[in-house]
Amino acid sequence: MKQRGGMAAAKLLCMALVFWGFLRQAAAQEGFISIDCGSTDSYTDSLGIAWVGDRRYTSSGANAAIDIKKANLGPDASTDRRKLQTLRYFPEPVGKFCYDLTVEASGKYLIRMTFLAGNQSSLNSTDFSVSLGAAHWQDLVIVDPWTPVVKEASFIALQVNLTICFRRGTNGDPFVNSIEVRPLSQYGYQLTIDDWIMTNIFRIDCGLKAGSPSVRSGFGCSPHSPSITE
Hints:
There is one protein chain. The chain is mainly beta and about 230 residues long. It folds into 2 domains: about 30 residues; about 190 residues, Jelly Rolls, CATH 2.60.120. It has 2 helices and 15 strands. It has an 8-stranded mixed beta sheet with strand order 2-3-1-13-7-10-14-15, with no helix packed on it. Strands 6-11-8-9 form a 4-stranded antiparallel beta sheet, with no helix packed on it. The longest helix is centred in the N-terminal third of the chain and has 27 residues. It is globular, with a radius of gyration of 20 Å.
């Protein structure tokens, strides 16, 4: 009887630890938005981050799959691979094409977008702009279809509705592979309402060995007052 009681207690303890692990993982991702653009699947990656498809966030554009065998993914390929296998592109000739997200007003956030055209020949040489809300943020020119372009910024959410919009340039269609939004500590970057976007200019891996994922990293940023677009 004692042995059975001990086994039952051990099972209960194991279940409690597993449940606690799920709670900790959920708490760690509170406020995370991870969108696999062009995908219809929901999944958890190797880092334990939950990803969702993008249909709940946009009604524009079309989805496409990418053969990423030729892509230059770098040392962190295992975590980047799946989110780069699909994209959403916007072939409409005019207008702006937006994702609608919900965030916490006045909260500080990191946003990261990834762009990889791959074997989609119509996107191999394209230029377009990206805006956050009503503010112009980035002008992109895609010249190498097999090397991912990553754009990051820290920003203050001016309201609960965050729109991320794309406008076509002179060549090709706007597109995006993934959108990630992460809440930041209020005691982090010194952002103000006047200078509410801080754009990542470059990233440096310190102490990185060839073929190994980065351990310590830093990045240079440029605060600016974004121009307002219609």
